[in-house]
Design brief:
Belongs to the ABC transporter superfamily. One of its GO terms (molecular function) is ATP hydrolysis activity. Part of the ABC transporter FtsEX involved in cellular division. Has ATPase activity. The chain is of the alpha/beta class and 331 residues long. The protein folds into two domains: 227 residues, Rossmann fold; 87 residues, 2-Layer Sandwich (Alpha-Beta Plaits), CATH 3.30.70. It contains eleven helices and 14 strands. The strands form three sheets. The protein has a six-stranded mixed sheet with strand order 6-7-8-3-9-10, with helices on both faces. Strands 2-1-4-5 form a four-stranded antiparallel sheet, with helices on one face. Strands 12-13-11-14 form a four-stranded antiparallel sheet, with helices on one face. Strand 4 and strand 5 form a beta hairpin. The longest helix has 18 residues. The radius of gyration is 24 Å and the shape is elongated. Bound molecules: adenosine-5'-triphosphate.
Length: 331
């Protein structure tokens, strides 16, 4: 588990001080993949670097693997950090060492013997699909392969937690997908808890179980994706299912219905038209697979005011659907 409680961090002092993290509370459960999203400057890097105390917070506590890191001595912290792997946007590989050498490097600090280092490096390179590249240097690798080495290095010392700092931001969409698949595989097979930061909602959709939205150093929403998508007004849910700006339609009401779990395959719109005699138009729809289930949002236009469409909206809500009125035009 990763737990941040009331964590604050500022840079600089006086009027020019920047509050990068502002009383952040964050809970990442064991074995889950948790994504933190936010705009540039929101504090994502500061947050993830705080988790292993690469950045020491001004106040608050950070607990990882049941140890409160903020209370440890430097020597104790060095030991705990070995149980926290980290991967980076620009891979941070040593160009003077081979692929295997880069992975072995992570084991040198643990005091493992040479033969054991080699055995473990080869084992982990096999896991990330890079056995054939063990003897080559990083410059001879593609971006995706470099990140696989980064992952192998991060996993070499058997961490319980993996931190991912924009690990796919420098990769093309297909390579991103393959790296995210690998992250999902190691999460499942090794039971690893993963905390990642990203500015790409697609990464969250593809791989995360839970997410948080960071804004100007504050967590404004967090929770499992399946809960967020059925929370009225959730900004993360809107970003997961973007439908663009709401158009103005004179004399009609625009609603959005969120589908999740079993509701995704019900003929809701057909029933709405039939039961209420309404000419419903579909203005937009987006469906994704979240947590193995179909979920999505549909934007509908219903003729008349929201008051006039009330019976239809109540009917949808009584079926357990999340319905939000997002636009109401006057004639
Ligand atoms: N070492 C530093 N010295 C001064 N200010 C810093 C430092 N590191 C971060 N900041 C400031 O703290 C705020 C949060 O930065 P941070 O890098 O954590 O944001 P971010 O969400 O990761 O942004 P990006 O997506 O652009 O990397 C920003 O205003 C940034 O300028």
């Amino acid at each position: 588990m990763i737990s941040l409680q009331n964590v604050s961090k500022s840079f600089g002092s006086g009027p020019s001080a920047v509050i990068a993290l502002d009383r952040v509370d964050l809970e990442v459960a064991d074995g889950e993949i948790f994504g933190v999203v936010g705009q540039s400057g929101a504090g994502k890097s500061t947050l993830i670097r705080s988790v292993n105390l690469l950045e020491r917070p001004d106040s608050g506590t950070i607990t990882v693997n049941e140890r409160e890191l903020t209370s440890l001595s430097d020597a104790e912290l060095r030991v705990e950090r070995r149980r926290i792997g980290m991967i980076f946007q620009h891979f941070n590989l040593l160009s003077s060492r081979t692929v295997r050498g880069n992975v072995e490097l992570a084991l040198e600090v643990t005091g493992a013997e040479r033969r054991e280092r080699r055995r473990r490096a080869d084992e982990i390179l096999d896991l990330v699909g890079l056995t054939a590249k063990a003897g080559v240097y990083p410059t001879q690798l593609s971006g995706g392969q470099k990140q696989r080495v980064g992952i192998a290095r991060a996993l070499a010392a058997n961490p319980r937690v993996l931190l991912s700092d924009e690990a796919t931001s420098a990769l093309d969409p297909e390579t991103t997908r393959s790296i995210l698949e690998l992250v999902r595989t190691i999460n499942r097979e090794l039971g690893l808890t993963v905390l990642l930061i990203t500015h790409e909602m697609d990464v969250v959709k593809t791989v995360c179980d839970s997410a948080a939205l960071l804004e100007a150093g504050r967590i404004v929403e967090q929770g499992p994706l399946v809960s967020l998508i059925s929370t009225a007004g959730s900004r993360l849910a809107r970003d997961l299912f973007p439908l663009g700006p709401v158009p103005r339609h004179a004399g009609s009401t625009v609603i959005e219905i969120t589908f999740s779990g079993g509701s995704a395959d019900r003929p809701v719109i057909a029933q709405l038209s039939r039961n209420h005699g309404l000419d419903v138009s579909i203005l937009g729809a987006v469906i994704e697979t979240i947590g193995g289930n179909q979920a999505g949002r549909t934007r509908l236009q219903i003729p008349g005011s929201a008051a006039g469409a009330r019976a239809a909206i109540d009917d949808l809500r009584s079926q357990g659907l999340l319905v939000e009125v997002v636009g109401e035009g006057n004639r």
